[in-house]
Amino acid sequence: MSDWIAQHFLHPSYVLPWGVALASVPIIVHLINRLRYRRVRFAAMEFLLRSQQRNRRRLMIEQLLLLLLRIAIVAGLLVLISRLVLDPSALWAFRGGKSHHVVLLDDSGSMRDRWGETSAFKEGLAIVRRLAAEGARRPGTQQCTLILLSQPDQPMFQKRDVNNAFVVELENAFERLECKHQSLDLVTGVEAAAKLMAQDAATIRHLHIVSDFRAKDWRDRPALRAAFLAASKTGASIDLAKTVGESHDNLAITDLGGEVRTAAVGVPLRLSATVHNFGSKVAQNVRLGILADGTLLARSVEIDRLEANQEIRRDIDVTFKKPGKHTVEIQLPDDSLPADNRRVAGVEINIANPVLIIDGHDENDDGSYVSMALAAEPSITGYSTRIAGPDFLRHGSLDPFRCIYMLNVPQLPADAVEILSDYVRRGGGLVWFLGDVVNTSFYNETLYPAGGLFPVRLGRIPKQAVRADETSLAPDLTITNNPIFSVYQGQTNPFIDAVRIKTWFPVADDWVRDDNQRKDPVSTIAFLPGHEPFAFERKVGKGHVAAFLSSAGPKWNDWSLNPSVVVFHLELVKHLAREDQTLQRKIVGEPIQVSFDPAEFLETVEITAPDANGKRVTRLTATRPAASEKPAAETPPVAGTVGPRKGAKPHSDTAVRVSATYPETDRPGMYVVRLFKDQSAAPQERWIAYNVPADESDLKMATNAEILARLTSDVHVQIHEPGQTQWIEGHSTAQEARTLLLFFLAAALVAEQLFAHRLSYHPTHAGSPA
Questions:
Q1: 3-class secondary structure for 110-127?
Q2: For domain 93-241+702-729, which CATH number applies: 3.40.50.1820, 3.40.50.410, 3.30.70.2740, 3.30.70.2190?
Q3: CB burial class (10 A; 0-12, 13-18, 19+) of residue 98?
Q4: 290-344 pLDDT, tens digit each
Q5: pLDDT at 261
Q6: What is the C-alpha separation between 567 and 589, in angstroms, rounded?
Q7: Residues near 407 by beta carbon (within 8 Å), at least 6 away in sequence
Q8: Is 69 helix (H, G, I), strand (E, B) or coil?
Q9: Which distant-in-sequence residues (6+ apart) come within 8 Å of 42 by Cβ?
């Protein structure tokens, strides 16, 4: 009974025992009135008594109704003072009794949405403050658990008694609390809250979800529906407190990339920036600012018009005059969500990008044509070349080379094939051109099966073109929409039509020519007349392989004499160049994990991270994982780290590694990881660019109808609009009951007066009975 009273009255202490005592007053008065006179029977009254007996039942009923009316009036006044709430599910959050309030506070990136002097996150903190302040008015009766969506398994406060001391501690914590930049999952937060409430034996439980409730989080997701159902089954009331009243327009830079693998000193580096309009209005005259190494460049990129819910790409050229690692940042003017108006990328600028050319012919004719195309002027193209024979694969290091050309190579020893395969699988690019000394049996039996180092099976002998009309302008090559052939795309670059292929190796007769039927990773990217396959590409490990079935020199075709051959080879190397030496890009929140051999570096790992005040340096000690632990997903090792460090003790087990993890990567910007060979040597550095997730830029809000539609009929929630605090302060839900009670009391008082007048004695005139 006491639990029911606590759930239906805002002031349950007024009901028991004082309410019952007051309700008994009319009964006591009634009984006293009946006992007030001593009955004396006399003859003159006999007639009246017989008349009274005939009307006694009616009079008793009327008197009983009058008594019940008076009791109801007292009870109504009591209920009005105690503030009855008709709908317990919409009851004020602090309604008495021992209650546990679990608050799930959304601190994802979209909560940084700002307007005026406030933001969605500030409004969320204000709601939590109001909850705590109201609970502190009833010390000893309320408990609070505060869960941040970014750390659902580690509550910020857990089952703390709500009092003035807690309010002060909460305020101190909020002064240091920052909203994250990450994309967070509401499902994990609701699941964590449901699990915690299921373990709680409190009589009354409440779940308050404080969020901006973006539409992207409330799309049809069975996991979200199941999480809310689990929370509802704990018996808790569920409040959804909105922190944002309307969707705000927002522009965001969602991507910044380009072919940075072959960036070189003095050569314009072309990057592409993608700008998305997440708003409902057309954006006009948008200006993109460009920063190189933190310095704003004099030029900018203009976007005249960007339609709502559309995106556009713009190319940006940046030139660096010094080798080494550099940063490029693109900026938009600030709007409602400033975090996504900036995007950063790291680039490694080389003096020149080395390319290895293995020429299988003694005269190196084909190799010279490729070398002239790539490195006739390294300061302009950004490439340097080295021409060597096949033996170089066995005796030289392949690590420095961005790409390797294999030109008219007859065959390779087994160890050279293994070295070449390892180079490609680690991210290297490999290009094949054939010729008159190629041993097709070696290619088919060794290179083709060896993990696809050569992408197709070849016919036994070369094939020569037969043209009925030598004057025909019909092209020999038909190309696909592949980045390698970007120079030939469009009507303004018809150079490919002039290329003539005289001799080539056909594919084997039993090799399936249809890419869709083979279902392998090989793509045919160019064809000869009759739709005969001519050029191919495939991915091997982290690297790429391309193969052309004719020569790189003019013996079998005139492609090397075509005016566009220089740009073709530049685009070919740019597309295939090794990726394992490029600077990483990550999304905020992804941890930095470093793993290395302790024979190469000291165990100290230094990480420089962006900070509100500039930079923050953290030193970690790498340790060996426990025997039961699996090695962590490793951040690629620092480039150029070969050989043991000076003074290091040799390790018999070369597989032993140490690792360190740095989880504090919420702030976007450039993170620098340093490994040390010894205390005096310069550290080896890795740069990692962190940016905000694009999905947090979509600020469209879910409507109440959309939210309710995503929940099952068994889940009952109360949705509270921004600025509405009645559900905390208890006004709106009690107002409905108060109005009804006032009408009831007015009607009861009128009825009581009518009955009282009817049952009382009223003379018709002075000295005469009625």
A1: HHHCEECCEEHHHHHHHH
A2: 3.40.50.410
A3: middle
A4: 999 999 999 889 999 999 999 999 999 999 999 999 999 999 999 999 999 999 9
A5: 82
A6: 40
A7: 357, 358, 359, 360, 361, 366, 367, 370, 433, 435, 551, 552, 553
A8: helix
A9: none
Q: Where are the domains of the chain?
A: 2-87+735-759, 93-241+702-729, 251-349, 353-576, 586-692
CB atoms within 10 A of CB 501: 23
Tokens of 602: 């000291």
- Enter the tokens of residue 524: 């045919």
Name the pairing type of β-strands 403-407 and 353-359: parallel
Domain 251-349 has CATH 2.60.40.10: yes
The fold adopted by the segment(s) 586-692 is Immunoglobulin-like (2.60.40)
Residue type for position 268: P
Distance between alpha carbon 519 and the CA centroid of its chain, in Å? 33
- What does the radius of gyration of the chain's CA atoms come to, in whole angstroms? 41
**Other Cβ atoms closer than 10 A to 718:** 17
**8-65 pLDDT, tens digit each:** 555 555 566 666 676 677 777 766 666 555 556 655 566 666 666 666 667 777 778 8
pLDDT per residue over 709-746, tens digit each?
989 888 999 999 998 877 786 544 444 566 777 788 88
Look at residue 595 and tell me whether its pLDDT is greater than 70: yes
Classify residue 40 as exposed, middle or buried by CB count within 10 Å of its CB (0-12, 13-18, 19+): exposed
Contact yes or no for 304/74 (Cβ under 8 A): no
Going by C-alpha positions, the residue among 101, 144, 105 that lies closest to residue 127 is: 105
Instruction: Note whether 353-576 and 586-692 share their fold.
Output: no
- pLDDT tens readout for residues 482-534: 888 877 776 555 678 888 999 999 999 999 999 999 888 999 999 999 899 99
The pair of three-digit structure tokens given for residue 546, joined into one six-digit string: 């391309």
Which residues make Cβ contacts (< 8 Å) with residue 463, sequence separation at least 6? 503, 504, 505, 506
Domain at 353-576: CATH architecture = 3-Layer(aba) Sandwich (3.40)
- Residue burial 570-605, b: 16+ Cβ < 10 Å; e: rest: bbbbbbbbbbbbbbbbbebbeebebbbbbebbbeeb
pTM of the entire structure? 0.76
